[in-house]
Structures are given as C-alpha cells and as structure tokens.
Amino acid sequence: MTKPENEFVFLPLGGSNEIGMNLNAYGYGPPGRRKWIVVDIGVTFAAEEHTPGVEIILPDPEFLETVRDDILAIVLTHAHEDHIGAIGWLWPRLKVPVYATPFTAHLVRDKLRERGIERDVPLHEVPLKHGFQLGPFWIEYLTITHSIAEPNGLAITTKLGTVVHTGDWKIDPDPVIGETTDIERLRALGDEGVLAMVCDSTNVFSPGESGSEAGVATALRAVIAEQRGKVAVACFASNVARLLSVCEAAAAAGRSVSLVGRSMLRITSAARAVGLLGSVTFVEPEQAGFLPDHAILYLCTGSQGEPKAALARIADGSHQHVSLGAGDTVLFSSREIPGNEREIYDLQNRLVERGVTVITGRDRPIHVSGHPCRDELAAMYGWVRPQAAIPTHGERRHLLEHAAYARELQVPQTFAPRNGDMVRLAPGPVTAVDEVPAGRLYVDGDALLPQDADTLRDRRRMAAEGTLFVTFSVDAKGKILAGPDVRARGLAERDGSPAEGRLELIADAAEAAFNRLKPGERTDEERAEDVVMRAVRKAALTIFGKRPMWKWW
C-alpha cells in the first residue's frame, strides 16, 4: 500500500465571510492523522434584533473537538476581542497550551480568571520576534503595526513550506508605541519562498493608505487645546497608542485624565504591567468632579453606542461620577463598526440634546484605521511575494475583491475561503479538499446556545408576535372546572391595557375548541394542547392580526 501523503492545510472556522470572530487552524500530516495548531479564538458582538438577550457570539469548535488530541496549541496574534475573546469559553473544550506575547498574555489571564480557569491553562509568554517549535510547525512572531499594542503576524513553517498569516495589520511609519513593521524580515521570508499569505481584507475597497497614529496624535492635541469646557474622548480601550496620545494632548492643554469604564482600567493595567504607559497618571472619576471644567479630560468606553458602557450612561445623565452638558465636548476617536451605526448615532444625538458638542473623525482627523488599504496591501504582497493569496477577515465581497486585487498584483494563485473550507496549501495547487462544520454559539447568561436553539427562535417570535397565556383547570374526567383564563403580553393595547373583550373572545375560542374534543381526548394533554393552540392562534390572527406564541396550563 502507498503511504498517505503529508499535506499542509488551512482551515478557517470564523472570520472568513465576516469581520470578527476569528478562529483559524493549520494542519500538517496525512488526512486523518494531521497535527493541528489553532490561530486566534475570538468573538463577535450580537445584534439585539436578531439574537435578543445575547451580547456575544462565539465560533463553534465542533470540528476541533473531534481532533482535540491532535491539537498542539492555540497561538494568539494580538489582544483584540475578535481574536482572544472566546478563549475563556472555548478553552475547556480543547484543553491545549496557549502561546501569546506579553501584553496579549496579560489580557488573556484576565479572561481566564473571569471563567475561573486561570490555573488550569498552560499559558506561555513568547517574546516579540521569537520563534518556537510545535510538532511539525515552526512558529515565528513577525512584528507588524495595528491599532493595539504588540500586534503580530505569524510565519508558520513546515517541511512543505511557509505560510505568512498576517493577522490584523497596517503599515504605520510612526505608530506612537511599539516598533514599525519588520519589512526586512518579511522580505527575507519572500526571498526564502512563501507558499501562501493569509491576509486581512478589511479595507480592500479603500484606496491609498490608512494613515499614521502620529497624525492622529497631532490632531488630538490641536482639537483638545481648542476646548474650554469638559472634554471626553471615546475610543477603543485596546488602542494603547491612542490612549497615550490623548494623555499627552491633555497634559499639553493643562488637563488631568480620568479613566471611565472597566475596559479602560483593564487595558491600562495591562499596558502599565508591560511598560507601555511610562509615567502617565490618572485621577479617579470621583475626584475629577472637583476639578475646573477646563482642567479635566475623561477617557471613556462606549464609542460604539453600547448601552451599558460609560458614555451611554453619561449621555443619559445616569453616570455616578461624570456629567456633561452645554459647553462640553465629546470626541469620537474611533471608527464605526458595521452594524453599530444606529446605536452610535442615537448616542451622539442624546449627547447633542444635552448641549454637548460632538466631534468625529469626519469632522477632524482624530482617527485612522488599523487595517491596510490598497496601497498597503500592494506593498505587503511586494515584500512577501507568496505563491498564493488567501484573503480572510472580511465579508464575502471583501474576500472576492481582495482575491481579484491579488491577481492584479501578479500573485499566481488565489483562494477566497468560507468558514469550514479546508484548503490544501501543499503539495500541489491551492484548493479546497474538504468542508467541515463551522457554526456559531451564543452566550446567553452563563450558557452557550447553538445557533438553531429553540430559545432564540422563541424570543424572536415573542418580540415580533407577542405571547398569550391560556390557563385551564380540568378534572380527571376532562370537565373544565375553572377558566380558560387568558393573559396577553406584547400585543396591541387599548387605553393602556389589552381590551378585555378581545381576550374574552380568545377564551371563548379556547373553550369551544376544548369542548369539541372527544371525552378521551380531553385528558390527553398533548392532544388537547394541540387543538386548543390551533384555535387560539386562529382567533388571535383574526382579533389581533398576529400569530402570538402561547402557553397552555
């Protein structure tokens, strides 16, 4: 018999055909006997109208659980939520070592601590630019720039060749903190030969370059110096360079800085622990209120309109320590994540109604993206010169446009994967060789629900159609002793409450349906429930114009 041939494969399970929730795997070996590494394990955030009661969505690791004994490690590129946010939830399903650079490792420990598993997880800190062996894989951290401290690409090398996994990146010639992109090493990898580059697609439709954090720092200094009242700056807490730029601009304007929001406290603690904040100091929000308006600046969470974040509570006038009004200014030094526009505009409108001046990146150059635009993509492909381009981190339109652009740049092969596509990188041409399950899990309180969970379907139904509760009391012979009693939730009201006459019509329909049952059927709960339910829903459609959910007792 012929010995099965080793293959080097790439498997996206989250982050391909969507932005966020990154979960990727690389395998090496013959089919059925591969060794695996997992790269990143992130979350995405739910839209309330689609998943009521759910705030966080995770990639489903169903396939990885089937090969758990062959997974060597989870390797993390950087500390954004869409790359590390699922680790506390999903690590118990995999139970493998975790590798990260120091800043990312600090934040990962926080996540593991929240889930009570910090002591269970073998977490290895890897210095920047270092490499290590995992079975058949040599993993090297590559220095890049992005909108967070310690962003990294990965060079993943096997006997069949090397893949450059960019993670999230941009080209920033002056990133404020951290080193610039290691162009020399990327070129060296290109000289050695790269099978494929798995690459960020977020800004593929944007021409030119994304811009530098140094330019944002200059703009922030000018805008903050112009203000006379209290100033609040809303930005992503994870962008430590931006936090440092705000602090320096505040100091230049004679303002003290107060951190408002748990994420700000968590990130600055991690940044200070790895030496990124220097001698920057902060005042507590409860003390900041005693300072003159012109002498305080608040760094706030909530730039995406999150209802529980600090800025939303400030806009509602419900924050315990911070109030803003006429003469004050809020700077949104952040981008609008697609899908959050409505919440962001609602938040900004609430601030304006309080007399607050709102300044965004459209008004002044106080934000730049952390992802590469087309000129940056062209530069990266010029350095790495891969044999194949595999776009990730984007919706379908992003991935297909990225693949087309890579062909314009003379990349010999392109493949735009979907989550669940197992892509053979070597030997031979890049192609899909299998498809595996790639679903979603919904965090509901302390539980994880599958994407087809009845719970979520029921919530959507209740939100759209309302609910009817029908109560009977029946004796052993099937005779009604009391009821039916009908109560409604979420149905159209008249004069402040559902019209009694309409609920009586529902009760009449339920009783008539029950009475039409044969004597033996009346004590068959399943049969009685089905018949009465159909009658109630039919009557509700006529009376309310809806088919509400209902519950029988």
Question: How do you describe this structure in short?
Answer:
This protein is an alpha/beta fold. The chain has 17 helices and 27 strands. 47% of the residues are buried.
Structural class: alpha/beta
Number of helices: 17
Query: Could you tell me the radius of gyration in angstroms?
Result: 28 Å
Q: Termini distance?
A: 66 Å
Q: What is the assembly state of the chains in this entry?
A: single chain
Q: Give the biggest sheet.
A: 8 strands, mixed
What is the total tally of β strands?
A: 27
**Largest beta sheet: what is the strand line-up?**
8-7-6-3-2-1-21-22
Molecular shape: globular
Query: What share of the residues lie within helices?
Result: 25-40%
Looking at the structure, the CATH topology of the largest domain is Metallo-beta-lactamase, Chain A
Describe the model.
This protein is α/β, with parallel strands linked by helices and 553 residues long. The chain has 3 domains: 7-208 and 369-441, Ribonuclease Z/Hydroxyacylglutathione hydrolase-like (Metallo-beta-lactamase, Chain A); 213-360, Metallo-hydrolase/oxidoreductase (Rossmann fold, 3-Layer(aba) Sandwich); 454-552, Ubiquitin-like (UB roll), CATH 3.10.20. The chain has 17 helices and 27 strands. The strands form 5 sheets. An 8-stranded mixed beta sheet has the order 8-7-6-3-2-1-21-22. The chain has a 7-stranded mixed beta sheet with strand order 9-10-11-12-13-19-20. A hairpin with a 5-residue loop joins strand 2 and strand 3. Helix 6 (213-226) runs parallel beside helix 7 (240-252) and helix 15 (500-515) runs antiparallel to helix 17.
